[in-house]
Amino acid sequence: MDARPWDVRTVKRCDAPTCRKFVPVGRLMCPTHWYRVSADTRARVWNAWRAIGEKLQGADPDKLQVYLAAVDRAKMEAAA
Ligand SMILES: [Zn+2]
Fold it and tell me: 19 alpha carbon to ligand 1 midpoint, in Å?
């Protein structure tokens, strides 16, 4: 019997506040929330994500700061 409904290695929760949907690891949000975020902010998130090598661990601190700021902005826009 597998108590886990999903695999943490491949799936995570949508980062939009209050959203409970699952998304693949490497995606920030479910499509519903992601497309509420402006194209400008989506581009910022993607560019910053690529700049840190698409992972948080071992990221350059300055680039990580830029990424986290973009994510915060995306979360605000998704919740609006
Ligand atoms: Zn969502």
Answer: 5
Question: Which parts of 1-80 are beta strand (E)?
Answer: 11-13, 22-24
Average pLDDT per consecutive 10 residues, the chain (80 residues; last block may be shorter)? 63 92 93 97 97 92 97 95
71 CA from centroid of ligand 1 (Å): 14
Q: In this structure, are residues 80 and 36 in contact, taking their beta carbons and an 8 Å threshold?
A: yes
- Token pair for 35: 């497309």
Domain extent listing, the chain? 11-79
Distance, in Å, from the CA atom of 62 to the CA atom of 56, rounded to the nearest integer, reads: 12
The token pair at 19 is 């959203």
The answer to pTM > 0.70 is yes
Which residues are within 8 A (CB) of 62 and not within 5 positions of it... i.e. 6 or more apart? none
